Each structure stands twice: as structure tokens, then as C-alpha cells.
Task: structure prediction
Amino acid sequence: MITIENLRAYGANVDEGVKRCLDDEEFYLDLVKSTVADDRLSELEQCLAAKDFDKAFEVAHALKGMYGNISITPVYEPISRITELLRDRKDVDYSELLAEAKEQKQKLDEMDAARE
Result:
């Protein structure tokens, strides 16, 4: 279950995220839960595999904003690094950063799936 306490233990900067939501914890949790349904991480993976760096940058930048705005730090950090590499359309091995982002997103998904 996604709760403030679970998110804090996961490594999210909950205080910052809630503050961005005008100190409305319920609204913050709703936004976090909406990220679970977002599948753009798979789209990013496909763009990187195809070496479509322009589209990959667009997707990564959107994900960076989404996770950054709600302070989901464990996913935000690798996505942010990917975004900055893609800003210059660098043809590098993104697999480690992508794997880290997917692993952290999976943990968030599992937290949502563990409902009481």
C-alpha cells in the first residue's frame, strides 16, 4: 500500500513532494498512485533500443518532470542522468541506468499492489 510512511522508507523525499502539493497529503498520494499506471518507462526503453535519441529525450524529460515534481527520488535520479546524457544525444550504454530506473519503478508498483 502506498502511504507516506512507505514512500519515506522507499527513499522518496515525501516532505518536499507534499509541500509541492500545497501540504495536501491525500493529493500527493493520488499523484504518486497515478505514476504506477504510467508506462512511459517501457517507451523510453524502446526508443533507446532503436537509438531514437530525439524521442528518447522527450520521453525521459517528461518522466524526469513527473518523478521530480512528486519527489520520487529513487526513480528520478537514474531518469535524470539518462535525460542529461540524451540532452546531447549521446550514444552510450544506457542499460545500467535504465535497469536501475525499472527496478525502482517496480518497487513502487509492488508497493501499490500490496493493498490492505
